[in-house]
Amino acid sequence: MLDYSEVSSLNQTEVLLIGFESVGKSGLFRELTGEKSALARNVKGSTTAALEAFCKLNPHIQLTDLPGLQLDIDSKNTQLTLDHFQEEKTILLVVKATNLKEEVTDLYEELDLKGRKVAIIATHSDKHLPTQAEQKRVRELLQVPVVWVNARALNERMQEEIITCIGEARVWGASKSILSFLPDSPHPVNQLIPIFRLPIAGPLVACLFILAMFALPVLGAYLFVSWLEPIADQYVLDPITSWVGQAPPFLADIFIGDYGLITLGSYSFLWAFPVVLLISIMTSLTEETGIQEHVTNALDPWLRKIGLTGRDLLPVITGFGCNVVAVFQTRGCSSCTRTACVSLIAFGSACSYQIGATLSIFNAAHAPLLFIPYLFILFIVGAIHTRIWNRDEANELTRTAPLPYIQKINWQAFAWKVAGSIKQFLLQAMPIFLVICLVASVLQAINVLSIFSWLAMPVLYLFSLPAEAAPGLIFSFIRKDGLLVLNEGQASLLMDMSLSQIFILVYLASTLSACLVTLFTIGRELGWKTSLSIGGKQMLTSVVSAAILAGGLYFLF
């Protein structure tokens, strides 16, 4: 006699969600399954892996959310979807209601649907909902069930209609000639925001928009922390420091010494957390509204000059939040440009932890405005670095996928993404930095920290930097916020350095190498040989560009 689990297995329906990018597959998956990891983003390539979960209203239906297909490039995401398509499972085609004829035809030509059980979901019904007569005609032509829904506002009734649609899936029999009789799309392909269409002003406005995406959060964080820091010192840190100072010398050094868990750890949290939070809010807002992709599309002609396309800029922007997530998102890039995109992320995408650490160092040196030329130079040198090492690989690529609609914010998805960034900072970033502080304190106590000076001596000597700066340079290899150890001793080291030395030191710590976690991720995604190659080229670019900067600063000051 079969038990319940065996009966469930026999009755289970496995369904693949397949469609182009930004059609709403992840939104459908999230609403039908309640799986938070699939919270949709209005950005192409936001799904980078296959996600599986059971429907809330029918646990016998297992859905698999797959990355969106791209007809114009040979991305890893597209290959992942095509590999899953070979499995004998029910196919749920997800298309936009506004482009149903074009997308169904393109999917028919891209996939071998003959003999497969198929059902169709037409999303964006809020943009276009055909009359009942038109809906009936579409179903009669395709001979498969079709349901029109708004994936961003999916109520229980709509979910039941989708589940019924899946249950009624039929074997595909429509030919290309039949597809030609489908009603024409009522709307033209979504066009670029008007201001971004201007020949020269468009890309310039797009650049200013991207700059504002990060400049405004950094400015807001700086103003907030500048107000909060003296209050926190007076009422929180000073009393704790006085109390811990009565502990045995070794423990006191661990907690409130030059690399103390309390002194340096609290400084890291105070400066990094607001930056992480505000950048996460800004990037989530631009993703949800869809404007982020319009910005990158406007910059496509300029990016091709350095070996990238507009869509490659999306992971680069993501890198300002977290480099590791950005490397995963490059799975949506063409195989021709993916290495170049990853190289730019490793060099020029200053993650939110790095930005917070850099801002705190410049502030401790009483020169917070240095952050502006720092970010500008990072952007310019990163573009030159990508151009030198990656030439004209993007010139043969086209961009055929339609742009996402500019639409209202999905506050549930927005809140989850911001909460995810906060959780990542509190549970991953801060613990790792505290471990760095602990290791530095112990190594200093046993007089081993001086070895780092010997390891970093060639670079320090080349740029006339003090040997005491070695730990900051070394720890930045582990984590970019590791350069916060330069604030040791109440920033006494920084007080003994000139502004040009501080600028060069921070630039080197930022660009000499990506952090170990990023390099490890690159190795797993692209191979260890590629990871080493990217790391070696980055180190060479960093040293040469730092030498040019140092020479320029010498003549200026």
Helix and strand layout, with pairings?
Blueprint: H1 4-11, E1 13-19, H2 25-33, E2 51-54, E3 61-65, H3 76-85, E4 90-96, H4 100-110, E5 117-123, H5 132-142, E6 146-148, H6 156-167, E7 170-171, H7 176-179, H8 201-244, H9 249-256, H10 263-289, H11 291-298, H12 300-303, H13 313-319, H14 323-329, H15 338-348, H16 352-364, H17 371-390, H18 411-445, H19 450-462, H20 470-478, H21 488-495, H22 499-511, H23 516-526, H24 528-556
Parallel strand pairs: 1-3, 1-4, 4-5, 5-6
Antiparallel strand pairs: 2-3, 5-7
Helix pairs in contact: 8-10, 9-18, 10-16, 10-18, 13-14, 13-15, 14-23, 15-17, 15-24, 16-22, 19-20, 20-22, 22-24, 23-24
List keywords for this structure.
557 residues; disordered N terminus; 24 helices; 60% helix; seven-stranded mixed beta sheet; alpha/beta
What does this structure look like?
The structure is a single chain. This protein is α/β, with parallel strands linked by helices. The protein has 24 helices and 7 strands. Strands 1, 2, 3, 4, 5, 6 and 7 form a 7-stranded mixed sheet that branches. Residues 1-10 and 38-45 have low confidence and may be disordered.
Brief summary of the model shown:
With 557 residues, the chain is an alpha/beta fold. 60% of the residues lie in helices and 6% in strands. It contains 24 helices and seven strands.
Distance between the termini: 87 Å
Q: Helix segment count?
A: 24
Oligomerization = single chain
pLDDT < 50 stretches: 1-10, 38-45
Relative helix content: 55-70%
Note the main sheet: 7 strands, mixed
Strand count: 7
Calculate the mean pLDDT score and round it. Answer: 84
- Rg of Cα set: 27 Å
Q: Structural class of the helix and strand makeup?
A: alpha/beta
- Dominant shape: elongated
